[in-house]
């Protein structure tokens, strides 16, 4: 439901949004999802109850793509991660939209150039990776391909700033971009630690939540390295890096769990056991944390 979350972002800042889906029953679900998120934000002091209906009134659900694109000034594609489907959509978007309209894809890992490969006007195609939930997480990675124009990048970044996002430029179209490369490098090592019996998954999570993870909201890795000194960083790397996991494929432990149907919250068992109440509590804890940060940043 990333599309509905992104629609909320623009509509809440005064933009009229056309929300398109080819499946008829998805549009009412999307509007209900947007309404519930607006209500939740209003209850937590982000916006008001009066603004809920006003924001919803700016969103027009449509099934016809050509009608959706009529008079559009900016387009974001949000279908699931299926390369062939995305390519087909971008070929249609490129044919239907005037050449000056930027066409963005919201993908978390896929090549932007491959997604736009069948389009003619590749200079106006770029990636906008919103993080979930997009109405609470400010970062948007704006990814260029070798063909993306500077004008398209500038226009996108300007627009994202106007709707309260924190856009960053990603200068190379590589799988995972920046954020997911960092995130999954951490996950790979975390899983390896559990797989080797060094510590159990709960302990690994606690080491992050109550350790260096507490610094991450205010201190990125480069600033942290400069703070402790690059001489110390180099010495640690010379000793430690050879012991870290560098496998090029998924962990056998992860593959084994998926094969057994141990999928996490959705099955009640993943790296840990989860009751329905535990899963709801975890999700609520995350949303409450993000709401508190968003309210503080108003």
The gist of it:
With 298 residues, this protein is α/β, with parallel strands linked by helices.
**Uncertain runs:** none
Distance between the termini: 25 Å
Mean pLDDT over the residues: 96
Strand content: 5-15%
Describe the biggest sheet? 5 strands, mixed
What is the helix content? 40-55%
Helix count, DSSP H or I runs of 4 or more residues: 13
CATH architecture assignment name of the largest domain: 3-Layer(aba) Sandwich
Domains counted in the coordinates: how many?
Answer: 2
Identify the CATH class of the largest domain. Answer: Alpha Beta
Indicate the radius of gyration in whole angstroms. Answer: 21 Å
Describe the structure in your own words:
With 298 residues, the protein is α/β, with parallel strands linked by helices. It folds into two domains: 2-170, NAD(P)-binding Rossmann-like Domain (Rossmann fold), CATH 3.40.50; 180-296, Orthogonal Bundle (N-(1-d-carboxylethyl)-l-norvaline Dehydrogenase, domain 2), CATH 1.10.1040.10. Helices cover 49% and strands 11% of the residues. A five-stranded mixed sheet has the order 3-4-5-6-7, sandwiched between helices. The protein has a two-stranded parallel sheet with strand order 1-2.
């Amino acid at each position: 439901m990333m599309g509905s979350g992104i629609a909320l972002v623009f509509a809440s800042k005064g933009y009229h949004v056309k929300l398109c889906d080819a499946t008829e029953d998805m549009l009412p679900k999307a509007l209900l999802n947007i309404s519930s998120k607006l209500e939740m934000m209003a209850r937590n002091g982000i916006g008001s109850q009066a603004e809920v209906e006003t924001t919803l009134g700016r969103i027009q659900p449509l099934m016809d793509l050509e009608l959706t694109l009529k008079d559009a000034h900016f387009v974001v594609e949000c279908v699931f991660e299926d390369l062939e489907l995305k390519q087909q959509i971008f070929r249609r978007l490129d044919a239907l939209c005037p050449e000056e309209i930027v066409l963005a894809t919201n993908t978390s890992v896929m090549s932007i150039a491959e997604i736009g490969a069948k389009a003619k006007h590749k200079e106006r195609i770029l990636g906008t990776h919103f993080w979930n939930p997009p109405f609470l997480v400010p970062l948007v990675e704006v990814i260029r391909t070798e063909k993306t124009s500077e004008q398209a990048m500038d226009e996108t970044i300007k627009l994202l700033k106007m709707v309260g996002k924190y856009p960053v430029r990603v200068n190379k179209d590589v799988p995972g971009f920046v954020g997911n490369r960092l995130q999954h490098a951490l996950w790979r090592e975390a899983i390896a630690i559990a797989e080797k019996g060094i510590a159990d998954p709960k302990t690994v999570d606690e080491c992050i939540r109550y350790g260096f993870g507490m610094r991450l909201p205010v201190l990125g890795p480069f600033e942290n390295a400069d703070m402790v000194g690059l001489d110390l960083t180099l010495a640690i790397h010379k000793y430690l890096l050879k012991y870290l996991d560098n496998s090029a494929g998924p962990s056998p432990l992860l593959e084994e769990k998926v094969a057994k149907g141990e999928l996490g919250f959705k099955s009640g068992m993943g790296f840990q056991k989860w009751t329905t109440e535990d899963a709801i509590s975890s999700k609520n804890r995350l949303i409450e944390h993000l709401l508190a940060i968003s309210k503080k940043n108003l």
